[in-house]
Design brief:
With 550 residues, this protein is mostly helical. The chain contains 25 helices and no strands. The N and C termini lie far apart (83 Å).
């Protein structure tokens, strides 16, 4: 009985520590991919609309995460589009993951302090900010929770429930897949039945292929698409070292990196470090130092899905190490327990936890404003394409046209084949009254979008056509955009404009009314959304005045 009470206390304290550290993320808006994956995602508008046979979002045709969509749908049923509720869910889920981290290590070792230290470090670690403070990071947390639950039931001998949670983890994000390689490392008996896990994995892969048509992300979404397998692996070696460094020295955190290559010296140095670590792990395995080997193996095994063995959309992101970090938190807990005694181990854990908590709280604040988020990113990665693009859009919406122009031209200088950059540049020149340059930029954005059909949305293509007075092509694009995402108010606003051009005044009025309704459902409108909202109101008013005159 006392042992159970101690376990409950450990779980609750780890959970409460995570809530304390991430409480200042609750007031943040939807940021970056949240707009596509949550705010404008038609699948989350009801629990019954969540599909297990279609992509995660129309904006992400290569992602398959129905369990994550289901969690958003539950949030929507409670909070509508108030981002506070979605952030609160992320914090609560991270609290559960932190408590489970403690519980899994306790079940493996029976050592309360080592497990507690691991849970606390996982709860407050700054590298988790991206996964927790960003609503779109939820897939990482859900996958981690289900993997840990699968491990708990595996350790208790309940293979049926364990394999079911493994399946749920896969449906949250594919990063859960390597669990099948970790389970044998925990098996103390050779007769474990792994068939249910194989069934879960095959069922997931079947559903994924049915939904996406393939296992991989479309090549148009992959920065490393032009690299060979060897080139991708050579690029990932320094990234692995970077991830390890972040776990022990979590500084320079950012949402996007502008890394595109590494020097030969950096790659060789990183390869030596990885080789040394692997040799240490092999020695630990040979010496039957099972727990330390498990910690390192966990980290590297769960990194496999994001190592670009099969090309993915990014080659470095801090959210990618949410689940792998459990292994190094286990390692830190064991080291603190084994290297220090009594009060020293407590004070060491407390010191590290306070330091990490402070860094996390400061980092969380960066996510409370998209403007701050992108400014902080550019301080560390001055050529990060999405940071330049998004900050340019913010400055454009704020009327800071000179700065917006500087940002977009910097981005084009480094990423000259990105159509969205020309689209934003066209809007900047249009705002400055240079219609000739704006027209050329719109033309270029359309030209490039035809080569890379995923880089610009149908809505953006429609705007480009509209600005070039290609009305029927604009109408076709906006109609396609509406079919893909009927909850994007900007699409309805632009449809209203096109209908008015074509003399379809009743349809135009309906479209403007729908745009205004959708804008009003957004609790915290960005500067761009506020401009769109006012524009829809003005468009409706102008339409009514024009039709009255007729």
């Amino acid at each position: 009985m006392e042992n159970k009470i101690l376990i409950y206390k450990g779980f609750i304290i780890c959970a409460l520590a995570s809530i304390f550290v991430y409480a200042n993320s609750l007031g943040g808006p939807f940021v970056y991919d949240d707009l596509a994956y949550v705010q404008r995602n038609p699948q989350i508008r009801s629990i019954t609309s969540v599909s297990f046979f279609s992509p995660f979002s129309s904006y992400a045709p290569g992602l398959y995460r129905p369990m994550t969509n289901l969690s958003y749908a539950i949030d929507y049923s409670i909070f509508d589009l108030n981002p506070f509720g979605y952030h609160a869910s992320n914090v609560l889920l991270h609290a559960i993951a932190s408590g489970l981290t403690f519980l899994v290590l306790f079940l493996i070792t029976g050592n309360f302090f080592a497990a507690f230290a691991a849970g606390i470090l996982f709860a407050v670690h700054p590298v988790h900010t991206e996964a927790v403070s960003w609503v779109s990071g939820r897939s990482e947390i859900l996958a981690c929770i289900f993997v840990l639950l699968a491990l708990i039931y595996y350790l208790r001998g309940n293979i049926r429930w364990s394999s079911m949670f493994y399946f749920f983890g896969l449906l949250s994000k594919e990063v859960a897949a390597p669990l099948v390689f970790v389970l044998p490392l925990l098996c103390r008996r050779k007769s474990k039945n792994y068939l249910p896990y194989a069934v879960s994995l095959i069922a997931y892969l079947t559903l994924r292929i049915m939904a996406l048509g393939s296992l991989s992300v479309p090549m148009e979404h992959i920065r490393t698409a032009g690299l060979s397998f060897v080139e991708r692996i050579l690029m990932m070696i320094p990234v692995m070292v970077h991830y390890i460094r972040l776990m022990f020295l979590p500084t320079g955190l950012r949402v996007e990196y502008d890394w595109t290559s590494f020097s030969g010296l950096v790659t060789i140095f990183s390869a030596v470090i990885i080789a040394l670590i692997i040799s240490v792990l092999i020695r630990l395995r040979k010496n039957k130092n099972h727990l330390y080997f498990l910690c390192g193996a966990w980290f590297f095994i769960f990194l496999l899905p994001v190592m670009n063995i099969i090309p993915i959309g990014e080659f470095v992101a801090e959210r990618f190490i949410y689940l792998p970090s459990v292994g190094l938190c286990f390692l830190a807990g064991l080291l603190i327990n084994d290297l220090f005694k009594n009060k020293n181990k407590v004070s060491t854990l407390l010191l590290i936890a306070i330091l990490f908590s402070g860094i996390s709280i400061v980092r969380n604040a960066h996510w409370k404003s998209p403007e701050i988020l992108w400014e902080k990113t550019l301080e560390l990665s001055p050529n990060a394409p999405h940071a330049l693009q998004n900050l340019a859009s913010i400055r454009l919406a704020q009327g800071e046209l000179d700065e917006a122009q500087d940002l977009v031209l910097r981005a084009i200088e480094n990423w000259s084949d990105e159509p969205v950059l020309y689209f934003i540049g066209a809007q900047v020149y249009e705002g400055k009254g240079d219609n000739e340059k704006a027209g050329k930029m719109y033309d270029k954005s359309i030209e490039l979008s035809l080569e890379d059909k995923y880089s610009m949305t149908e809505s953006q293509i429609g705007v480009a056509y509209l600005k070039l007075d290609r009305i029927y092509e604009a109408l076709e694009s906006f109609e396609k955009a509406k079919e893909e995402n009927k909850y994007d108010p900007s699409i309805w606003n632009n449809l209203g404009i096109v209908y008015a051009y074509l003399g379809k005044y009743e349809d135009s009025l309906v479209a403007f009314d729908r745009a205004i309704e959708l804008y009003e459902k957004i609790s915290l409108r960005s500067a761009e959304e506020e401009n769109g909202y006012r524009g829809a109101i003005d468009n409706r008013k102008s339409l009514l005045e024009a039709t009255e005159e007729l």
